[in-house]
Specification:
It is a single chain. It is built from 16 helices and 11 strands. The radius of gyration is 24 Å and the shape is elongated. Helix 8 links the parallel strand 7 and strand 8. The protein is an alpha/beta fold. It has a 7-stranded mixed beta sheet, with helices on both faces. Strands 7-8-6-9 form a 4-stranded parallel beta sheet, sandwiched between helices.
């Protein structure tokens, strides 16, 4: 029986999923291996009747440059009981599987870490290599290397916001954009910088003060007021969805915006548009200020996850896939593949990346980096002490909307 590998995809989609899977398939097929695709993410490993199919060259060649994921994904997270009772070792034994390749983000990587430790503890001779994926760019790769899918998502997000910005300029309105990214603001900042957005709000900018609705609103008002002073009656504001997830639930309740709550009294933010939520709260603030500013909410996230990957990710994902073979051939396991700027593959051991809970913590935006600081210093528009006199025409207390005072910078 041929040596085999199993490939699965976990979490949500990102541009390049098919590129990784199909490039892994092409690489191992060229070495004489059998390649098995497992549908349903991790749920397939804890199932007595998993849905699998062999990936041959023709399937791999037809799908490697397409968006979405040929292998159906899921967010299934196995429990400790699943590991002890439901792990389908027969799937590996019956098919002579030597390597499990997992493709996903931080949750998928954390589960891959559990699987690596489980296999080692049981002395099962199966290697495990993870490929880092997420449009959020929040896996801890060295040298600020991106996760695959991020650049394609940023490219499409910037395309959408460029169009949105033109609509704002043409109509004299403000467009409020919520950008996907629950744990980090990489995508929002990337889109905001690429489109010269006058204000981008990400969780990491609150490094010296807590996140509150009041501060989010004041930052937005600061940008609009500054543009009023400059005679610019339009613009965009990009907000990372993570700022809303980091809010105190009581702060959200106090806004009076209608939303559903779970059994613990926490707002179910996953069920609503963050852009609509933001717009509703901001409109109330405009009434208090006596401003007649027209705003429109736009959500960016699901529309950038399944697009065709750009050339950057086509190349990068191919290199990651070939890196899986390089690491496996050197006897590596329990690791995440990292490809450096020279195209060389290196192992990042999951046990070294885990926190006390065994999870892979997200990489957040370095707010003190040149990228962030240059954007906020040179592209953004906001009230500064030099604007107080001119801004007094629109605000009773301009200092209350001073960007650096709001953030304690």
């Amino acid at each position: 029986m041929k040596d085999s590998i199993i490939i699965l995809c976990g979490g949500g989609p990102a541009p390049g999923m098919n590129t990784v899977v199909c490039s892994v398939a092409k690489t191992f097929l060229s070495k004489g291996w059998r390649v098995i695709g497992l549908h349903g993410g991790y749920s397939g490993l804890f199932n007595s009747a998993p849905r699998t199919e062999d990936l041959d060259f023709f399937k791999a060649d037809a799908y490697f440059n397409r968006g979405g994921s040929y292998l159906q994904m899921s967010r299934f997270k196995p429990t400790d009981e699943d590991f002890e009772k439901n792990f389908n070792l027969g799937l590996f034994k019956d098919n002579n599987v030597k390597l499990l390749v997992t493709v996903g983000g931080d949750d998928t990587a954390s589960t891959a870490n559990r699987i690596a430790k489980f296999l080692a503890a049981k002395k099962y001779p199966i290697a495990n290599i993870h490929v880092p994926k997420t449009i959020d760019n929040d896996l801890p790769l060295p040298q600020n290397a991106p996760t695959f899918g991020f650049n394609s998502a940023k490219d499409e997000g910037a395309h959408l916001v460029r169009t949105i910005y033109e609509d704002a300029r043409t109509s004299g309105n403000w467009l409020l954009v919520s950008c996907m990214g629950r744990s980090a603001g990489h995508l929002a900042l990337g889109v905001g910088e690429a489109t010269h957005c006058p204000m981008t709000i990400i969780p990491e900018m609150f490094n010296k003060t807590g996140i509150t609705i009041d501060k989010i609103i004041r930052l937005t008002v600061s940008a609009i007021a500054k543009r009023k002073v400059l005679g610019i009656p339009y613009g965009t504001v990009v907000v990372a969805e993570g700022v809303f997830h980091d809010l105190d639930p009581e702060d959200l309740k106090a806004t009076g915006v209608h939303m559903s709550y779970d059994e613990h009294g926490h707002p179910e933010l996953g069920k609503i548009s963050k852009a609509v939520l933001f717009n509703d709260i901001l409109e109330k603030e405009f009434k208090k200020l006596g401003w007649k500013v027209k705003t429109r909410p736009v959500e960016i996230g699901y529309d950038v996850r399944c697009q065709d990957p750009i050339a950057y990710d086509l190349t990068y994902c191919s290199e990651l896939a070939m890196g899986v073979w390089e690491l496996y051939s050197k006897g590596e396991t329990g690791c995440m593949v990292y490809v450096d700027n020279n195209g060389l593959a290196h192992p990042l051991y999951l046990k070294d990346l885990q926190n006390e809970e065994g999870k892979i913590p997200p990489r957040r935006v370095d707010i003190l980096s040149g990228t962030a600081q240059n954007y906020y210093s040179n592209i953004c528009h906001y009230i500064t002490p030099e604007d107080y006199e001119a801004a007094g025409k629109y605000l009773s207390d301009p200092s209350y909307y001073d960007f650096k005072k709001i953030l304690c910078w």
